[in-house]
């Protein structure tokens, strides 16, 4: 009589690849929800640590401009009730989470009755167009430059130009922007000193309007690209030096493959993984980087909106801007988990 179990337990059976992929997706999605909740909670607490009343400050500012301060206390109580600021803090927190779950960011305190979502919708395209495009250009140029400089058979000019970009990468791009404003805007008057478009002219899709938008975006975009190329190039160069000594590269060369095929498919492709990870994180931090560069150039983007909201302690606009930042980082990392296995299938095997 056999002592072996003819009906083995399900626990000993390996899971199917489809089950592993689904469970991995559920875990990542759960982690995304947890990160967003923690960030939203911190986002709710920090602005309220300042002992300031944004409603009273805004009404006092408006009353001072109008020359009348009568009845301001009644107005403060009315608008505090309108914004829900007169309720206990725990009820405000629950209402805040409920509104976020419904993607309702509420009304702006400093620009009432304008909704926060409308403000973000107006500012976000400016930030994406400026910093998003500039970051992509810097990533592509810096990655190619670093790959060529780190490859032993790469052109000599790549190794000669890399030190200059490395020096520029040590300078914050808003300082580079200040130099550009002084040289090309004030002295040479080739470009406007700031703003997203000419004052009094509404942007359209006409040729003249697009040209005007590009002229206003040129200096901040070029300053970001020049100050960022060295960062991407240095990281890629280090990875290429490591990859070139790997066995699979030596084997590809021994097979007699064309040097550029070895460079692209065996060198760049394997060295690109850390670059793509950093790119996802960089896209998530576009809003924080936009604050200073948009202040320097007076660019009407999300960073400038966040800066003005912090100055006025506008709770709800701060909440909206920071939530956009958190969601951008979280979603970028979620997408990254699915993109990396397409570049290198080994990462998908390890994550499973």
Essential attributes:
352 residues, 14 helices, 2 domains, MetI-like fold, mainly alpha
Overall form: flat
Structural class: mainly alpha
- Sheet-strand content, in percent, reads under 5%
Oligomer: single chain
Q: Give the number of domains.
A: 2
How many E strands?
Answer: 0
Helix content: over 70%
In CATH, the architecture of the largest domain is Orthogonal Bundle
- Discrete helix count: 14
Polypeptide structure, described:
The chain is mainly α and 352 residues long. The protein folds into 2 domains: 44-104, no CATH class; 116-351, MetI-like (MetI-like fold). 76% of the residues lie in helices and 0% in strands. The protein has helices at 17-49, 54-66, 72-83, 89-101, 116-150, 156-169, 173-187, 207-244, 247-254, 259-284, 286-297, 302-312, 315-343, 345-351. Helix 5 crosses helix 12. The longest helix is centred in the middle third of the chain and has 38 residues, at 207-244. The protein is flat and about 85 Å long.
Short description:
It is built from 14 helices and no strands. It is mainly α and about 350 residues long. Helix 5 (about 115-150) packs parallel to helix 13 and helix 8 (about 205-245) packs across helix 10.
